[in-house]
Design a protein that fits this description.
mainly alpha; 404 residues; 15 helices; 71% helix
Length: 404
Protein backbone atom coordinates (compact mmCIF):
# COMPACT_ATOMS: atom_id res chain seq x y z
CA UNK A 1 0.00 0.00 0.00
CA UNK A 2 1.03 3.68 -0.46
CA UNK A 3 2.71 5.35 2.52
CA UNK A 4 3.26 8.91 3.66
CA UNK A 5 6.91 9.57 4.36
CA UNK A 6 9.69 11.92 3.35
CA UNK A 7 13.16 13.08 4.32
CA UNK A 8 15.33 16.14 3.79
CA UNK A 9 18.97 17.05 4.28
CA UNK A 10 20.81 20.35 4.40
CA UNK A 11 22.20 19.90 0.89
CA UNK A 12 18.73 19.00 -0.37
CA UNK A 13 17.31 22.13 1.22
CA UNK A 14 19.90 24.27 -0.56
CA UNK A 15 19.12 22.51 -3.82
CA UNK A 16 15.43 23.23 -3.34
CA UNK A 17 15.97 26.94 -3.65
CA UNK A 18 17.32 26.34 -7.14
CA UNK A 19 14.81 23.72 -8.30
CA UNK A 20 11.55 24.97 -6.81
CA UNK A 21 9.68 28.25 -7.40
CA UNK A 22 9.55 28.65 -3.63
CA UNK A 23 11.97 27.91 -0.81
CA UNK A 24 11.58 24.66 1.11
CA UNK A 25 12.49 25.27 4.72
CA UNK A 26 13.38 22.63 7.26
CA UNK A 27 10.84 21.95 9.96
CA UNK A 28 10.73 19.68 12.97
CA UNK A 29 10.90 16.04 12.04
CA UNK A 30 7.74 13.94 12.27
CA UNK A 31 8.27 10.18 12.29
CA UNK A 32 6.48 7.54 14.31
CA UNK A 33 8.25 4.16 13.93
CA UNK A 34 5.51 2.40 15.87
CA UNK A 35 3.15 3.14 12.99
CA UNK A 36 5.50 1.29 10.66
CA UNK A 37 5.08 -1.74 12.91
CA UNK A 38 1.31 -1.27 12.73
CA UNK A 39 1.53 -0.96 8.95
CA UNK A 40 3.27 -4.34 8.80
CA UNK A 41 0.47 -5.80 10.93
CA UNK A 42 -2.04 -4.40 8.41
CA UNK A 43 -0.14 -6.03 5.56
CA UNK A 44 0.00 -9.39 7.34
CA UNK A 45 -3.76 -9.22 7.88
CA UNK A 46 -4.29 -8.83 4.15
CA UNK A 47 -1.68 -11.48 3.35
CA UNK A 48 -3.30 -14.12 5.56
CA UNK A 49 -6.70 -13.24 4.12
CA UNK A 50 -5.41 -13.95 0.62
CA UNK A 51 -3.29 -16.93 1.71
CA UNK A 52 -5.90 -18.92 3.61
CA UNK A 53 -8.24 -21.15 1.58
CA UNK A 54 -11.61 -19.79 0.53
CA UNK A 55 -14.96 -21.29 1.44
CA UNK A 56 -16.27 -23.89 -0.97
CA UNK A 57 -18.99 -26.51 -1.34
CA UNK A 58 -16.99 -29.19 0.44
CA UNK A 59 -17.55 -27.54 3.83
CA UNK A 60 -20.95 -27.10 5.43
CA UNK A 61 -22.09 -24.44 7.83
CA UNK A 62 -22.07 -27.16 10.51
CA UNK A 63 -18.29 -27.28 10.27
CA UNK A 64 -17.61 -24.74 13.02
CA UNK A 65 -13.82 -24.87 12.78
CA UNK A 66 -13.99 -24.12 9.07
CA UNK A 67 -16.47 -21.29 9.60
CA UNK A 68 -14.28 -19.80 12.32
CA UNK A 69 -11.32 -19.83 9.94
CA UNK A 70 -13.47 -18.13 7.31
CA UNK A 71 -14.42 -15.41 9.80
CA UNK A 72 -10.75 -14.82 10.58
CA UNK A 73 -9.82 -14.90 6.90
CA UNK A 74 -12.48 -12.38 5.91
CA UNK A 75 -11.51 -10.13 8.84
CA UNK A 76 -8.05 -9.93 7.30
CA UNK A 77 -9.56 -7.88 4.48
CA UNK A 78 -9.96 -5.02 6.92
CA UNK A 79 -6.21 -4.52 6.99
CA UNK A 80 -6.81 -2.44 3.85
CA UNK A 81 -9.09 -0.14 5.84
CA UNK A 82 -6.35 0.22 8.46
CA UNK A 83 -3.95 1.16 5.65
CA UNK A 84 -6.40 3.86 4.57
CA UNK A 85 -6.74 5.24 8.10
CA UNK A 86 -2.97 5.27 8.60
CA UNK A 87 -2.35 6.97 5.27
CA UNK A 88 -4.96 9.63 5.98
CA UNK A 89 -3.62 10.30 9.47
CA UNK A 90 -0.05 10.69 8.23
CA UNK A 91 -0.97 12.79 5.19
CA UNK A 92 -3.24 15.05 7.24
CA UNK A 93 -0.67 15.47 10.01
CA UNK A 94 2.06 16.36 7.50
CA UNK A 95 -0.27 18.83 5.77
CA UNK A 96 -1.18 20.33 9.16
CA UNK A 97 2.48 20.84 10.02
CA UNK A 98 3.25 22.24 6.59
CA UNK A 99 0.34 24.68 6.93
CA UNK A 100 1.54 25.82 10.36
CA UNK A 101 5.11 26.18 9.13
CA UNK A 102 4.52 27.91 5.78
CA UNK A 103 0.96 29.28 6.18
CA UNK A 104 -0.01 27.33 3.07
CA UNK A 105 -0.16 23.90 1.46
CA UNK A 106 1.94 23.61 -1.69
CA UNK A 107 -0.07 21.45 -4.05
CA UNK A 108 2.63 21.03 -6.69
CA UNK A 109 5.11 19.76 -4.10
CA UNK A 110 2.49 17.45 -2.59
CA UNK A 111 1.63 15.80 -5.88
CA UNK A 112 5.27 15.46 -6.86
CA UNK A 113 5.92 13.65 -3.57
CA UNK A 114 2.97 11.32 -4.13
CA UNK A 115 4.00 10.62 -7.72
CA UNK A 116 7.54 9.78 -6.68
CA UNK A 117 6.26 7.49 -3.93
CA UNK A 118 3.48 5.61 -5.73
CA UNK A 119 3.88 5.72 -9.49
CA UNK A 120 7.29 4.07 -10.11
CA UNK A 121 6.39 0.77 -8.46
CA UNK A 122 2.72 0.82 -9.43
CA UNK A 123 3.36 1.53 -13.10
CA UNK A 124 6.22 -0.97 -13.19
CA UNK A 125 4.04 -3.83 -11.98
CA UNK A 126 1.14 -2.73 -14.18
CA UNK A 127 3.21 -2.65 -17.37
CA UNK A 128 4.99 -5.86 -16.40
CA UNK A 129 1.73 -7.76 -16.00
CA UNK A 130 0.26 -6.06 -19.07
CA UNK A 131 3.24 -7.12 -21.16
CA UNK A 132 3.59 -10.66 -19.81
CA UNK A 133 -0.17 -11.11 -20.01
CA UNK A 134 0.04 -10.98 -23.81
CA UNK A 135 1.83 -14.35 -23.67
CA UNK A 136 0.69 -15.81 -20.31
CA UNK A 137 -3.07 -16.29 -20.22
CA UNK A 138 -3.59 -16.09 -16.41
CA UNK A 139 -2.03 -12.59 -16.42
CA UNK A 140 -3.95 -11.30 -19.42
CA UNK A 141 -5.67 -7.93 -18.91
CA UNK A 142 -8.21 -6.65 -21.45
CA UNK A 143 -7.34 -3.22 -22.82
CA UNK A 144 -10.19 -1.42 -20.97
CA UNK A 145 -9.10 -3.02 -17.69
CA UNK A 146 -5.48 -2.04 -18.23
CA UNK A 147 -6.50 1.53 -19.08
CA UNK A 148 -8.70 1.77 -15.99
CA UNK A 149 -5.82 0.77 -13.73
CA UNK A 150 -3.49 3.09 -15.60
CA UNK A 151 -5.86 5.99 -14.85
CA UNK A 152 -6.31 4.91 -11.20
CA UNK A 153 -10.00 4.04 -11.58
CA UNK A 154 -9.45 0.29 -11.36
CA UNK A 155 -11.89 -0.05 -8.47
CA UNK A 156 -14.73 1.41 -10.52
CA UNK A 157 -13.90 -0.83 -13.46
CA UNK A 158 -14.06 -3.88 -11.17
CA UNK A 159 -17.42 -2.73 -9.80
CA UNK A 160 -18.88 -2.36 -13.29
CA UNK A 161 -17.33 -5.63 -14.51
CA UNK A 162 -17.30 -7.95 -11.47
CA UNK A 163 -17.38 -11.12 -13.58
CA UNK A 164 -14.17 -10.30 -15.49
CA UNK A 165 -11.03 -11.91 -14.09
CA UNK A 166 -8.47 -9.40 -12.82
CA UNK A 167 -4.86 -10.58 -12.30
CA UNK A 168 -4.12 -7.45 -10.22
CA UNK A 169 -7.39 -7.30 -8.30
CA UNK A 170 -5.77 -6.34 -4.98
CA UNK A 171 -4.46 -3.08 -6.48
CA UNK A 172 -7.95 -1.58 -6.47
CA UNK A 173 -6.99 0.08 -3.17
CA UNK A 174 -4.25 2.10 -4.88
CA UNK A 175 -6.92 3.63 -7.11
CA UNK A 176 -9.03 4.54 -4.08
CA UNK A 177 -6.05 6.13 -2.36
CA UNK A 178 -5.17 8.17 -5.44
CA UNK A 179 -8.76 9.39 -5.62
CA UNK A 180 -8.43 10.52 -1.99
CA UNK A 181 -5.26 12.47 -2.87
CA UNK A 182 -7.13 14.44 -5.53
CA UNK A 183 -9.25 16.32 -3.01
CA UNK A 184 -7.53 16.23 0.39
CA UNK A 185 -4.56 18.60 -0.10
CA UNK A 186 -6.76 21.10 -1.93
CA UNK A 187 -9.13 21.16 1.04
CA UNK A 188 -6.20 21.73 3.39
CA UNK A 189 -4.94 24.57 1.20
CA UNK A 190 -8.36 26.24 1.07
CA UNK A 191 -9.02 26.23 4.79
CA UNK A 192 -6.51 24.25 6.77
CA UNK A 193 -7.71 21.78 9.37
CA UNK A 194 -11.11 23.45 9.65
CA UNK A 195 -12.05 22.46 6.12
CA UNK A 196 -10.44 19.03 6.59
CA UNK A 197 -12.61 18.50 9.67
CA UNK A 198 -15.77 19.55 7.84
CA UNK A 199 -14.89 17.36 4.88
CA UNK A 200 -14.23 14.38 7.15
CA UNK A 201 -17.53 14.83 8.96
CA UNK A 202 -19.31 14.98 5.60
CA UNK A 203 -17.58 11.75 4.46
CA UNK A 204 -19.04 9.70 7.32
CA UNK A 205 -22.77 10.03 6.48
CA UNK A 206 -21.89 10.09 2.76
CA UNK A 207 -20.35 6.65 3.18
CA UNK A 208 -23.47 5.31 4.89
CA UNK A 209 -25.63 6.83 2.15
CA UNK A 210 -23.49 5.12 -0.48
CA UNK A 211 -23.89 1.82 1.38
CA UNK A 212 -27.66 2.28 1.40
CA UNK A 213 -27.78 2.98 -2.32
CA UNK A 214 -25.45 0.17 -3.36
CA UNK A 215 -27.04 -2.38 -1.02
CA UNK A 216 -30.19 -2.17 -3.12
CA UNK A 217 -28.35 -4.06 -5.85
CA UNK A 218 -28.35 -7.65 -4.65
CA UNK A 219 -25.65 -9.08 -6.91
CA UNK A 220 -21.93 -9.06 -6.08
CA UNK A 221 -22.31 -6.98 -2.92
CA UNK A 222 -18.87 -8.13 -1.74
CA UNK A 223 -17.48 -6.27 -4.79
CA UNK A 224 -19.83 -3.35 -5.35
CA UNK A 225 -19.67 -2.30 -1.70
CA UNK A 226 -16.08 -3.16 -0.85
CA UNK A 227 -14.45 -1.53 -3.89
CA UNK A 228 -16.62 1.58 -3.79
CA UNK A 229 -14.45 4.61 -3.08
CA UNK A 230 -17.34 6.49 -1.46
CA UNK A 231 -17.80 3.64 1.02
CA UNK A 232 -14.08 3.42 1.78
CA UNK A 233 -13.65 7.17 2.20
CA UNK A 234 -14.99 6.87 5.75
CA UNK A 235 -11.67 5.33 6.81
CA UNK A 236 -9.75 8.27 5.38
CA UNK A 237 -12.17 10.51 7.28
CA UNK A 238 -11.44 8.76 10.59
CA UNK A 239 -7.70 9.03 10.00
CA UNK A 240 -7.98 12.75 9.29
CA UNK A 241 -10.17 13.36 12.33
CA UNK A 242 -7.62 11.58 14.52
CA UNK A 243 -4.88 13.83 13.14
CA UNK A 244 -6.96 16.95 13.83
CA UNK A 245 -8.05 15.88 17.32
CA UNK A 246 -4.59 14.76 18.42
CA UNK A 247 -2.79 17.72 16.78
CA UNK A 248 0.58 16.03 16.97
CA UNK A 249 0.19 14.68 20.50
CA UNK A 250 0.35 11.02 21.48
CA UNK A 251 -1.65 9.21 24.17
CA UNK A 252 -0.01 8.04 27.36
CA UNK A 253 -1.36 4.54 27.81
CA UNK A 254 -0.29 1.61 29.92
CA UNK A 255 0.58 -1.77 28.47
CA UNK A 256 -2.73 -3.09 29.77
CA UNK A 257 -4.63 -0.29 28.04
CA UNK A 258 -2.88 -0.95 24.74
CA UNK A 259 -3.48 -4.68 25.03
CA UNK A 260 -7.16 -4.05 25.70
CA UNK A 261 -7.35 -1.84 22.63
CA UNK A 262 -5.79 -4.57 20.47
CA UNK A 263 -8.29 -7.10 21.84
CA UNK A 264 -11.17 -4.68 21.22
CA UNK A 265 -9.97 -4.04 17.67
CA UNK A 266 -9.78 -7.76 16.92
CA UNK A 267 -13.24 -8.33 18.42
CA UNK A 268 -14.72 -5.55 16.26
CA UNK A 269 -13.20 -7.00 13.08
CA UNK A 270 -14.35 -10.53 13.90
CA UNK A 271 -17.87 -9.29 14.66
CA UNK A 272 -17.96 -7.40 11.36
CA UNK A 273 -16.90 -10.56 9.55
CA UNK A 274 -18.64 -13.33 11.48
CA UNK A 275 -21.86 -11.60 12.61
CA UNK A 276 -22.39 -8.85 10.04
CA UNK A 277 -20.99 -11.04 7.23
CA UNK A 278 -19.06 -8.26 5.50
CA UNK A 279 -17.16 -9.40 2.42
CA UNK A 280 -18.91 -12.78 2.44
CA UNK A 281 -19.34 -13.84 -1.23
CA UNK A 282 -22.91 -14.38 -2.36
CA UNK A 283 -24.42 -13.19 0.93
CA UNK A 284 -26.76 -10.23 1.45
CA UNK A 285 -26.71 -9.58 5.20
CA UNK A 286 -29.18 -6.71 4.98
CA UNK A 287 -28.71 -2.96 5.16
CA UNK A 288 -28.58 -2.71 8.95
CA UNK A 289 -25.92 -5.41 9.33
CA UNK A 290 -23.83 -3.91 6.54
CA UNK A 291 -23.89 -0.42 8.08
CA UNK A 292 -23.13 -1.74 11.55
CA UNK A 293 -20.41 -3.95 10.10
CA UNK A 294 -18.58 -1.09 8.45
CA UNK A 295 -18.73 0.96 11.63
CA UNK A 296 -17.31 -2.01 13.54
CA UNK A 297 -14.45 -2.14 11.04
CA UNK A 298 -13.84 1.58 11.59
CA UNK A 299 -13.95 1.13 15.37
CA UNK A 300 -11.47 -1.72 15.09
CA UNK A 301 -9.12 0.40 12.98
CA UNK A 302 -9.25 3.24 15.53
CA UNK A 303 -8.56 0.78 18.36
CA UNK A 304 -5.53 -0.69 16.60
CA UNK A 305 -4.25 2.78 15.74
CA UNK A 306 -4.60 4.12 19.28
CA UNK A 307 -3.00 0.97 20.70
CA UNK A 308 0.12 1.66 18.60
CA UNK A 309 0.41 5.46 18.60
CA UNK A 310 2.98 6.58 21.12
CA UNK A 311 3.97 3.04 22.07
CA UNK A 312 7.62 2.31 22.71
CA UNK A 313 9.37 0.37 19.95
CA UNK A 314 12.27 -0.70 22.16
CA UNK A 315 10.92 -4.22 22.28
CA UNK A 316 9.88 -4.38 18.62
CA UNK A 317 12.34 -6.21 16.35
CA UNK A 318 13.94 -3.80 13.89
CA UNK A 319 13.04 -6.03 10.96
CA UNK A 320 9.32 -5.56 11.78
CA UNK A 321 9.68 -1.79 11.52
CA UNK A 322 11.71 -2.22 8.32
CA UNK A 323 9.05 -4.48 6.79
CA UNK A 324 6.43 -1.87 7.68
CA UNK A 325 8.61 0.69 5.95
CA UNK A 326 8.56 -1.36 2.72
CA UNK A 327 4.95 -2.54 3.15
CA UNK A 328 3.84 -0.78 -0.04
CA UNK A 329 6.04 -3.10 -2.07
CA UNK A 330 4.98 -6.11 0.01
CA UNK A 331 1.36 -5.30 -0.71
CA UNK A 332 1.98 -4.84 -4.43
CA UNK A 333 3.91 -8.10 -4.85
CA UNK A 334 2.12 -10.49 -2.49
CA UNK A 335 -0.71 -11.37 -4.87
CA UNK A 336 1.62 -12.37 -7.68
CA UNK A 337 3.82 -14.35 -5.31
CA UNK A 338 0.86 -16.29 -3.93
CA UNK A 339 -0.54 -16.90 -7.42
CA UNK A 340 2.81 -18.22 -8.67
CA UNK A 341 3.20 -20.58 -5.72
CA UNK A 342 -0.40 -21.77 -6.07
CA UNK A 343 0.17 -22.63 -9.72
CA UNK A 344 3.36 -24.52 -8.84
CA UNK A 345 1.69 -26.40 -5.99
CA UNK A 346 -1.28 -27.43 -8.12
CA UNK A 347 1.07 -28.66 -10.83
CA UNK A 348 2.98 -30.80 -8.29
CA UNK A 349 -0.25 -32.15 -6.79
CA UNK A 350 -1.54 -33.21 -10.21
CA UNK A 351 1.73 -34.78 -11.30
CA UNK A 352 2.22 -36.73 -8.07
CA UNK A 353 -1.49 -37.26 -7.24
CA UNK A 354 -1.02 -35.88 -3.74
CA UNK A 355 -3.88 -35.94 -1.23
CA UNK A 356 -4.56 -35.72 2.48
CA UNK A 357 -1.82 -34.73 4.86
CA UNK A 358 0.89 -34.53 2.21
CA UNK A 359 -1.18 -32.12 0.14
CA UNK A 360 -1.95 -30.06 3.26
CA UNK A 361 1.76 -29.85 4.12
CA UNK A 362 2.53 -28.77 0.57
CA UNK A 363 -0.14 -26.06 0.89
CA UNK A 364 1.46 -24.71 4.07
CA UNK A 365 4.88 -24.78 2.42
CA UNK A 366 3.65 -22.88 -0.61
CA UNK A 367 2.05 -20.17 1.58
CA UNK A 368 5.26 -19.75 3.59
CA UNK A 369 7.27 -19.64 0.36
CA UNK A 370 4.89 -17.02 -1.00
CA UNK A 371 5.54 -14.82 2.01
CA UNK A 372 9.29 -15.32 1.67
CA UNK A 373 9.22 -14.41 -2.03
CA UNK A 374 7.09 -11.37 -1.27
CA UNK A 375 9.56 -10.10 1.32
CA UNK A 376 12.60 -10.80 -0.86
CA UNK A 377 11.16 -9.07 -3.93
CA UNK A 378 9.85 -6.22 -1.77
CA UNK A 379 13.32 -5.61 -0.34
CA UNK A 380 14.91 -5.62 -3.80
CA UNK A 381 12.21 -3.31 -5.14
CA UNK A 382 12.66 -0.86 -2.28
CA UNK A 383 16.44 -0.73 -2.69
CA UNK A 384 16.74 -0.58 -6.46
CA UNK A 385 13.42 0.81 -7.74
CA UNK A 386 11.70 2.83 -5.03
CA UNK A 387 14.57 4.36 -3.05
CA UNK A 388 16.07 6.38 -5.96
CA UNK A 389 12.72 8.09 -6.44
CA UNK A 390 12.22 8.52 -2.69
CA UNK A 391 15.56 10.34 -2.50
CA UNK A 392 14.17 12.87 -4.98
CA UNK A 393 11.21 13.56 -2.68
CA UNK A 394 13.40 15.58 -0.33
CA UNK A 395 13.53 18.35 -2.93
CA UNK A 396 9.81 18.90 -2.44
CA UNK A 397 9.54 18.25 1.29
CA UNK A 398 8.51 20.80 3.92
CA UNK A 399 8.20 18.52 6.94
CA UNK A 400 10.84 15.87 7.44
CA UNK A 401 9.50 12.42 8.14
CA UNK A 402 10.70 8.81 7.89
CA UNK A 403 14.33 8.49 6.73
CA UNK A 404 14.66 6.79 3.34
Amino acid sequence: MATAESSITSSDARANTRTMPYSVTRGAQFYRPELDALRFMAFMSVFFCHALPFDDARHTHADRAWQWMQDVREAGNFGVCLFFLLSSYLITELLRREYLQTKSVHLKAFYLRRILRIWPLYLSILFFVGGVGVFVRPLHMPAPQFLAYLLFVGNWYAILSPAIYNPLNWLWSISVEEQFYIVWPTMAKLGGMRVITIGSLVCLPMSLLAIGLVERFQQHLEVTLWLNGLVQFQFFAWGALLAVLLSGTTPTLSTIDRTALVAAGGACWLAASGICLLKRPGVDPGLMKVCVGYELVAAGCVCFFMSALGASVSGVPKFVIYLGKISYGLYVFHGLALSAMTALRQHIEQRLSLHGGVAASLFVADRISGLGITIAVGMLSYKFLERPFLNLKSRFTFVRSRPV
